[in-house]
Amino acid sequence: MSEFIIETKNLTKKFGATRVVNHVDLKVKKGEIYGFLGPNGAGKTTTIRMLLGLARPSKGSIHMFGKDIRKEKLAILRKVGSLVEYPSYYGHLTARENLEAVRVLLDVPKSRIDEVLSIVRLTKDAKRPVKGFSLGMKQRLGIATALLGNPELLILDEPTNGLDPSGILEMRELIKSMPKEHGITIVVSSHLLSEVDQMATQVGIITKGRIIFQDSIQKLREQASSSIKLTVNDVEAAWKTLLSNGYTTDLVQNNIYIDRGTDDQVAAIVKSLVEHDFSIYRVEEQKKSLEEIFLELTGKEGGLL
Length: 305
Fold this sequence. Notes:
Distance between the termini: 38 Å
CATH topology of one domain: Rossmann fold
CATH architecture of one domain: 3-Layer(aba) Sandwich
Order of helices and strands: EEEEHEEHEHHHEHEHEEHEHEEHEH
Oligomer: single chain
Strand order of the largest sheet: 7-8-9-4-10-11
CATH class of one domain: Alpha Beta
Structural class: alpha/beta
Number of helices: 11
């Protein structure tokens, strides 16, 4: 059996002559929180709809749990829960009554309702009409509904969209807890880089329908080299002194920048400046943010927060 819960090859979706998803190869391992990241319109939701059997690929294959979705769609989807866009519910019914309506369709034990309410922390509100819920509570109820069938994989499309800071924090902590506490693999799509950074173990970045990066958050950070910024007196003279002594540096806006080297190399540069009677006011490491890395990868097309 494949080591991947989800594996797509050359997954493509065309609308007319436009390829909204273009040869996408996703690889999601068991137990991961996979952050599917990209600006609005990049192809995230279309990809998710194909994973859930809601849209037919124009080309390529989808294997989930080692099975081909074209041949074993029902067997696969029994193991999958999802929340795509906003959850649907009956406002006049309570949270428990909404879950009971779905439970009957899924034919799962009644005890499962209490279990999922506990997971999403809605036990105390189980008898309240859903129309009185906050947006965050409705999102959590949507996840509870997705969990009723005891899925091994949970696919969430923009689950923090529209939530206030408190709701975002609650959703983030809920998502982070599920792989460890319940053994559920999660795919969560977002256009917010800061959200993916705080909860995902792996990340796939899609833009214009293509995957341009797929690895850990740490690997993404490692793609950006850092530099050392020196603030000194008589900066132009200091810069020329370093150049004459064989050090490669840049002079930018009254500061000296050197490519990130070893600690010994940085110390040697500082020592050289001190020996030439320059005053060093500050030595700082300049790291690129994930936002800057994303903009470089996508050619500055669209920003993510």
